[in-house]
Specification:
This protein is mainly alpha-helical. It folds into two domains: 33 residues; 91 residues, Winged helix-like DNA-binding domain superfamily/Winged helix DNA-binding domain (Arc Repressor Mutant, subunit A, Orthogonal Bundle), CATH 1.10.10. It has a two-stranded antiparallel ribbon with strand order 1-2. Helix 5 crosses helix 7 and helix 6 crosses helix 7. The protein starts with a helix and ends in a 9-residue tail after the last strand. 6% of the residues are buried.
Length: 143
């Protein structure tokens, strides 16, 4: 049912096999928790990610956000870095909630474009980050 609902919702699933496995895994854990069975032997995370690449990529997020226009960078930082609620951000910036949501979504798209422009990223067949580096021709990040 979850697969059917997701297909009808228009969500983009990049790796269907791992997505289905994760759903089955979560359903199994929830079932065992509800029936009060011990689940200490069930791992919370199936695969360990290569944390070095993720740590390296995370170091550049603030610099990449700073390359965006301020009207997009500021709401994005408040929402995604400082984890403020969008209605709080709207009040702080003096915008409507819809305008705030639009700016945050636009900022995420601009950030994605900037990442594609300035970064070399290798993803494995499981959708995990394999390698991350900054392009030499990305002048704003070479400083």
């Amino acid at each position: 049912m979850k697969m059917y609902k997701s297909c009808c919702s228009g969500k983009d699933i990049k790796n269907i096999k791992s997505w289905l496995f994760q759903i089955a895994h979560n359903l199994m854990i929830n079932h065992h928790k509800k029936s009060n069975k011990i689940v200490s032997d069930i791992p919370e995370q199936i695969e360990e990610k290569n944390t070095n690449e993720y740590t390296e990529a995370a170091k550049w997020i603030d610099a990449l956000i700073d390359l965006l226009p301020e009207k997009y960078a500021h709401p994005l930082k408040l929402a995604d870095i400082q984890k403020q609620k969008q209605n709080e951000i709207a009040t702080e910036l003096g915008l409507s909630l819809n305008a705030t949501k639009s700016r945050i979504q636009r900022a995420r798209k601009l950030l994605k474009d900037k990442i594609q422009e300035c970064c070399l990223i290798e993803i494995n067949d499981k959708g995990q980050l394999e390698d991350f580096s900054i392009r030499l021709d990305c002048d704003p990040l070479q400083d």
